[in-house]
Amino acid sequence: MQRYLLHRLIVLGLSLAVASVAIFMVVELVPGDPASYMLGTGAQPETVAALRQQMGLDQPVALRYAHWIGAALTGDLGQSFTYKTPVAALILDRLQVSLPLALMALMLSVAIALPIGMFAAARNGRAGDTLVMGAAQIGISLPNFWFAMLLVLLFAVRLRWLPAGGFPGWGNPLAALKSLILPAVALALPQAAILARVLRSALVETLGQDYIRTARAKGLSRGQALRLHALRNALIPVVTILGMQFSFLLAGAIIIENVFYLPGLGRLIFQAITQRDLIVVQGAVLVLVAAVILVTFLVDLAYAAIDPRLRLK
Predict the structure, then answer these.
(1) Please, which residues bridge with residue 79 across strands?
(2) Using an 8 Å Cβ cutoff, are 86 and 76 in contact?
(3) Which family is this protein grouped under (predicted)?
């Protein structure tokens, strides 16, 4: 297990290093001068020169990368040109919305997908399986922004149970959680449909294994064999999808955040791109990539917890 953990930590460090170089070089490869791009075509040469000096663009590329990554390791991601605020502070502020939203959507996705996937697998080939998987296919096909608008029309406009948008802050936790319910449901539905189909397929394959037939021969019902033996062995592909979904929910909720006017990280990146604030884009993307790599590392650890054979590698 220690060897496996050490190997995954080395991969984690190398992945972060390669990702940081790639992110830095993408900004470097933006056509034209980044300072001129950020200020626009009508900027004065003196203003462009001052921003170039502030961004360190008058220094060699290798030295700029060393300064940037060294500062990033201390938590300094630079200062936003648009907001005149440290980028790290902006990202932390937006994560207070995006992270709880992603966690709520992920938990809701699991809560929906787990019983549905098990129900369909236990009735493989029968009417219940066909009906549930057909509904899951519809859930995958529905655009989440369209579903989000339907939720707003029903629960905010007609029933007035939940707010239609905005985020009041965590000063009032109940109001903050209520404002995240509809976006979390809108994000969770297609993810739950995907997860349910993956779980159902993994369970059906596992239920055909010899050890499951042996368990059935000893007197276990199909449902008992599924819950006691098949479920754990079918979790590896499910955990993989969960890791990918969390990364998507954290970084890819731009449309939903705009539909509900949520000041999240995805909306920050979108606004930074439209405002040509490359420093914010660079810092936010670095944080997101680091989060994805960290989630992948945790998924690998979950593999080892689920399958003891991996601990011997």
Answers:
(1) 86
(2) yes
(3) Belongs to the binding-protein-dependent transport system permease family.
Each residue's pLDDT tens digit, 90-141: 999 998 998 899 899 999 999 999 999 888 888 888 888 889 889 888 888 8
DSSP reduced 3-state for 244: helix
The candidate with the shortest Cα–Cα distance to 26, out of 54, 61, 53, is 61
All structural domains of the chain: 2-73 (no CATH), 94-312 (1.10.3720.10)
Report the distance separating Cα 310 and Cα 150, nearest Å: 45
Structure tokens at 191: 């993810």
The reported pTM is 0.82
- Could you tell me which residue, 43 or 75, shows the higher pLDDT? 75
* CA geometry: angle 225, 226, 227, nearest 5 deg: 95
Categorize the per-residue pLDDT at 181 as very low, low, confident or very high, splitting at 50, 70 and 90: very high
Res. 51: pLDDT tops 80: no
Task: Identify whether the C-beta of residue 194 lies closer than 8 Å to the C-beta of residue 146.
Answer: no
Element holding 278 (H helix, E strand): helix 278-306
Nearest to 44 by CA among 36, 32, 34: 36
Tell me whether residue 70 is exposed, middle or buried, using C-beta atoms within 10 angstroms of its C-beta: 0 to 12, 13 to 18, 19 or more: exposed
DSSP 108: H
pLDDT band at 25, cuts 50/70/90?
confident
- The pLDDT-based confidence of 311 (bands split at 50, 70, 90) is low
Residue 183: closest CA among 255, 112, 248: 255
Task: Take residue 306 and report the two structure tokens written for it.
Answer: 């689920």
